[in-house]
Inverse folding.
């Protein structure tokens, strides 16, 4: 069974093989459930010209936002520019190609990529700039546009618990895009808060089966709050 042990000892080992020009799928939503240490390792390595697919690009100075500082991302599929001023600035200055993608479409692009489906039709975006230049079909009197699936050279994912074989459980809303991204990476790397012994995870509660996971690492996390709201 030792051959099925997917644990790695360092973040350098976890991201071994990432190179300039690769496509990276990243889980997370805002700052919830983001693979923050894997992102930090990408920054440390200094790889450039990356295509990234993620719901958004973190915030200034944290999450995927740190990759903007040294212009490591050249193109991003995202549904939200959000609270990141540097992301907005680079987009407006044409320093980064931003492919704004409806959130459900982005999720389905990852899911389809993981399922081996090369493209799918959706009504979302028809008749808007999102649909410009895309194939249109009519089904049952309604128009749909063709969207291509996404597959990454790497998928970077944040989980809650996992066993050494790569079976992963996510916690509450931190599930978000993570299980979708996990299926669609040629190399899928998952960082978790805790690695448990085999058999400790209830099989029916596993969100990402280990067959999708190539490397697993246990880390510690800052878990920032994107926007704190208080009620006085």
């Amino acid at each position: 069974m030792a051959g099925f042990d997917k644990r790695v000892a360092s973040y350098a080992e976890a991201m071994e093989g990432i190179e300039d020009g690769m496509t990276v799928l990243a889980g997370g939503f805002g700052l919830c459930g983001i693979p923050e240490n894997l992102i930090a390792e990408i920054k440390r390595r200094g790889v450039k010209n990356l295509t990234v697919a993620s719901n958004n690009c973190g915030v200034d100075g944290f999450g995927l936002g740190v990759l903007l500082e040294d212009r490591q991302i050249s193109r991003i599929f995202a549904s939200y520019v959000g609270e990141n001023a540097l992301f907005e600035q680079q987009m407006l200055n044409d320093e980064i190609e931003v492919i704004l993608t409806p959130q459900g479409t982005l999720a389905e692009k990852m899911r389809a990529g993981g399922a081996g489906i090369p493209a799918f039709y959706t009504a979302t975006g028809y008749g808007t700039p999102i649909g410009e230049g895309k194939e249109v079909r009519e089904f049952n009197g309604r128009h749909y546009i063709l969207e291509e699936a996404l597959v990454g050279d790497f998928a970077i994912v944040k989980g809650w618990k996992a066993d050494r074989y790569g079976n992963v459980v996510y916690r509450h809303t931190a599930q978000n895009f993570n299980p979708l991204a996990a299926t669609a990476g040629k190399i899928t790397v998952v960082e978790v808060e805790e690695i448990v012994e085999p058999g400790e995870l209830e099989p029916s509660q596993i969100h990402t089966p280990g067959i999708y996971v190539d490397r697993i690492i246990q880390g510690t996390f800052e878990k920032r709050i994107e926007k704190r709201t208080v009620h006085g």
User: Anything to note?
Assistant: The first helix runs from residue 11 to 14.
